[in-house]
Amino acid sequence: MITRRHLLAGLAGVSISALAVGGGFALEFIDYTGSELEGLAASGKPYVINFHATWCPTCAAQQRVLDALQSESTAYAAIPILRVDWDSYGNSELARGLAIPRRSTLVLMQGNKELGRLVAETRKAQIAALLDLAGS
Questions:
Q1: Strand runs (DSSP E) across 5-135, as ranges?
Q2: Total of domains in the chain
Q3: Which of 43, 44, 103, 105 is the most exposed place for a label (fewest CB within 10 A)?
């Protein structure tokens, strides 16, 4: 039986695949498993840590906005997004160390320095403003 959760997760995967193939930009989404953060921090380039849950409607809305922004702009597409599954890592050292209050939190980082964050924000202009901090 397909649950709503499985359907939403599948649709999210289809939309990301379609954008990656059809948009012409190299979208970089990395699923967090524990070791990816070190490499991103060492790169010295800005990156986003996205605390999400597959069943979260706010997270899905944020993902749609991130997909749209990254398909519209090579600058946004160049910002890697580390997706941290809230169900698996919501109580992890990473979440506690960054004082993440809930899923649907986006944190823009460069190295180990936080440049900005949004919690439960789904407006395109606000998310774009966060990503714009990567260039400043």
A1: 29-31, 46-52, 81-85, 105-110, 113-119
A2: 1
A3: 44
**What would the two tokens of residue 117 be?**
């964050």
Backbone angles phi, psi at 120, to 5 degrees: 60, 30
* Domain interval for residue 112: 4-135
What secondary structure letter does DSSP report for 78?
T
CATH number at residue 118: 3.40.30.10
pLDDT digits (tens, 9 = 90+) for 81-102: 999 999 999 999 999 999 999 9
Give the C-alpha distances (Å, rounded to integers) separating 9 from 13, 70, 125, 133. Answer: 6, 19, 25, 29
Pairing of strands 46-52, 29-31: unpaired
Question: To which residue do tokens 């012409």 refer?
Answer: 24
Residue 49: pLDDT band (50, 70, 90) is very high
User: CA–CA separation, 96 vs 72, rounded Å?
Assistant: 33
Phi-psi region of 44 (alpha: psi -120 to 50; beta: other; left: phi over 0): left
